[in-house]
Write a structure and sequence with these properties.
Elements lengths: L1 H42 L3 H15 L2 H13 L5 H14 L1 H11 L8 H11 L6 H26 L8 H8 L6 H18 L2 H13 L5 H14 L1 H7 L5 H23 L1 H11 L9 H27 L3 H11 L27 H28 L3 H33 L5 H34 L8 H26 L7 H35 L7 H29 L7 H6 L8
Helix pairs in contact: 1-2, 1-7, 2-4, 3-4, 3-12, 3-13, 4-13, 4-15, 5-10, 5-15, 6-7, 9-11, 10-11, 10-15, 11-13, 11-15, 12-13, 13-15, 13-16, 14-15, 17-18, 17-19, 17-20, 18-19, 19-22, 20-21, 20-22, 21-22
Length: 593
Amino acid sequence: MSTLLTTLNLFGGLAIFLFGMKIMSDGLQKASGEKLRQLLGVATTNRFAATFCGALVTSIIQSSSATTVMVVGFTSAGLLTLYQALGVIFGANIGTTLTAWIVSLFGFSVQISLFALPVIAVGFFVQFIPRVILIRRIGETMVGFGLLFLGLDIMKNAIPADFAQNPQVVAWISKFRPDNLLNLLTLIFSGSILTVILQSSSAVMAMTLTCAAAGIIDFPTACALVLGENIGTTITANLAAIGASKDARRAALGHFLFNVIGVFWVTCIFRHFVDFIDWLVPGSPYTKETAVLTAVLPYHISAFHTVFNLINTALMLPFLKQLAKLTLVFIPKTKREDKKEHELIFLSTRFTQTPELALIAVRKEVERMMSFVTKMTDKLIHAVKVDDDKMFERLIEDVKAAEHTTDVLEHKINLYLTTLTHGNLSRHAVAQAFSLFDVLNSIERMGDCGEKIARILEKFHTKQPFQGQDVDDLESIAKLTKEITKRTRRVLVDLQQPTKQWHDKARNTFVEAVRDENELNTLRKQFLRARRERILAGQAEATPDSITAYADILNNFERIGDYAMRVNENILGMRADDVAEDVKNAAPAGQGA
């Protein structure tokens, strides 16, 4: 009964540790989410910058699994190349070693009960401070930090003081010491399986440190488990890559290969490497005195973890391109990779561990959806004036296909966003998500308007009711509509994240959008009036169907402009009234940018 109770207490402490790790990681993501996205710009310069970026991000959010899942997602989203992604993953392996040092420094050298509960108390109550969002995020992080160490304290206390001296325990453990290759491989495999089950190398590391400090496992055994944890942590990214783009799957595979290669060479010199760490770190990790063991052994294990990852990264970094090529052997390139228009490309990876960072992939998907509307308006420009029947049919089919794609994408992105808003997001991120709902609806309506124009043109193509000036006017309004949709797409790409120059650029862009929207409305009225005059002069067809069709085409082009304006308003956070004076002072329509 006592053994069962000890086991349950141990797993209860582990559960609190994992829960604290999750809360702390979520809080850190919310507090630094925007900065983490900006760090991606650093990752695109060279391999060393990418490695530094990976180490820094992982150190900030305290989760290598979260970083690698994020990298896989960003690779799937086209924000990182395979080469850059592998560099970030190398750095993530270094950054994750910080967790072991934090646990070693605070978990065994300090009486946890003195600060864990006060930290949780302070962190919990500061979350109720109104208006100051950053303090609330820090409070959430403090709660996670306190729970993490409370769980560690429970695990430590769950193990009886005489447990390691029990003859049966000693006899059982001695069977698993890495004295030979088979035992070493068994321990590495065990560390990998534990990490896969718990989905957290930090949790397995905490268990390893706790058992080592209690004298249950010795230093070499702990080191062998650490090697297994390095392999096991790669499974999370590979699971996240299921169904993602091929480059994303290659990045996840590269993470696995990187760690397996590292574990392979350390296995070959395992005993010498362990002795090197023992020489490097002061104190003997083989002492039988519990107090000395608790003070020394956690630092030896943490040093083993850090030095292994530093050396492995230093050895592998010059061969980054070769590793990228090796992934191509397992996942070869095809002539047309991932060209599924109706599928989510950038959201094919589930950002379950980084919901706060998922919005960047959502925006990329929304921008991709907008690209189909831009292509649609381009096809309509040609459809208005083309004479060749086969070419006309092809253009109309392309417009219909693009509209169908926007419908499917809108539905899928909406479902994803709905799931996301029910997750653990900051208030700012939730506001952005709800803004994107309206953007999605507007883009889908733009697609509907484009399809209506295509169907009208298709219906009257053989009758040819529009000639001469009618065609020229329709072409003019179609070209202006295309420019409006192109600018709207650029807004989705370029003006998502505020920078020092963001406000001025956003305001200038919005002034241009309002000016073009006003011109579009003016053109619609002008062209309707001009055609009435041509009808009265006998210069245009005057059948009721042709009059209605011409007006419907102009109206739908104008509606596309209206919906584009709604997208601009949502993304830039402005209204036409805000820039009324700037629009008046701007260059006359047709003379601006």
